[in-house]
Design goal:
InterPro entries: CDO_1, RmlC-like_jellyroll, RmlC_Cupin_sf. This protein is of the alpha+beta class. It is built from three helices and ten strands, in the order αααββββββββββ. It starts with 6 loop residues before the first helix and ends with a strand. The mean pLDDT is 91. Bound molecules: fe (ii) ion.
């Protein structure tokens, strides 16, 4: 596939994420959490992968994927940020290196949101969230240096361009 992980490791990871109950189930989220805990515990291996980097921006690198899930390594250039967004699918992520600042928002209408909480996610941090609803967030790397995180999304990377459902503009912050 993409050459970032061996075929064996890709197969093992994708098999472990297969759930009869689908990618919104408790079993799936627990399996995704296990995969992330394993990957964030090997920062040397992840950092040695030939990942794409975009100075000042974030770069997504597909590590493995099938018709149910896709696993990405995201390299956050210093100063990079996502839009304020929610997801059409479950979204699990873990921080491998650097610090990723995650800000949570509350929608006040269909296109605007106000910040409610901000946390610095350190290496080893793992989180899983379900789609849409109140799960609106933004991720940024204030540096110094790059950050790397692993994301597991419950979507077919060949059917959807990204995991983003709706983007918002910030009000009051
Ligand atoms: Fe997100």
């Amino acid at each position: 596939m993409q050459g970032f992980l061996s075929a064996e490791r890709q197969g093992a990871v994708l098999r472990s994420l297969r759930s009869d109950e689908g990618t919104l189930s408790r079993d799936y989220l627990a399996a995704a959490r296990d995969v992330l805990r394993e990957l964030v515990a090997m920062p040397d291996l992840i950092q040695r992968l030939p990942l794409e980097r975009k100075p000042g921006c974030y770069a997504r690198n597909l590590l493995a994927g099938d018709e149910n899930v896709s696993i990405w390594a995201i390299v956050w250039g210093e100063g990079s940020a996502t839009s304020i967004h929610d997801h059409h699918c479950s979204c699990c992520f873990g921080v491998v290196s650097g610090v990723v600042t995650e800000t949570w928002y509350r929608a006040i209408d269909a296109s605007r949101a106000v910040p409610t909480e901000e946390q610095q996610r350190q290496p080893g941090y793992v989180a899983c969230m379900l789609p849409s609803g109140p799960n609106i967030h933004r991720m940024r790397n204030f540096g110094p240096g790059e950050a790397i995180s692993i994301h597991i999304y419950g979507f077919d990377h060949e059917a959807h361009a990204s995991s983003i459902e709706t983007e918002y503009t910030a009000v009051g912050g």
